[in-house]
Design goal:
Shape: globular
Helix content: under 10%
Structural class: mainly beta
Length: 116
């Protein structure tokens, strides 16, 4: 059974940092590119960042490029997102999934709120 559990969200002031983690179980992590996505109320879920299986290749949405860093630990089956210089517009629920995403495997996500 595939499970994706995102964690590490919270309330942070503008300019602050957070590190998100995603613990994966089942077959989705091994051998697959993985990604982070986010969604705000009333909007469609959007792509944030992706990483290849080896970690050698990464891809970012223009809105987070230079501020966010995606990484993975293939031994621990864990995906990470280091978020620096956070802005109020980064406020969203953040999810992890394969890249491209599998519609059946969205977990609960983790809430990130950037506010003073």
């Amino acid at each position: 059974e595939v499970q994706l559990q995102a964690s590490g969200g919270g309330l942070v002031q503008p300019g602050g940092s957070l590190r998100l983690s995603c613990a994966a179980s089942g077959s989705i992590f091994s051998g697959n590119p993985m990604g982070w996505y986010r969604q705000t109320p009333g909007k469609e879920r959007e792509f944030v960042a992706a990483i290849s299986w080896s970690g050698a290749s990464t891809n970012y949405a223009d809105s987070v490029k230079g501020r966010f860093t995606i990484s993975r630990d293939n031994v621990r089956n864990t995906l990470y997102l280091q978020m620096n210089s956070l802005k109020p517009e980064d406020t969203a629920v953040y999810y992890c999934n394969a890249y491209p995403a599998y519609d059946d495997y969205w977990g609960q996500g983790t809430q990130v709120t950037v506010s003073s």
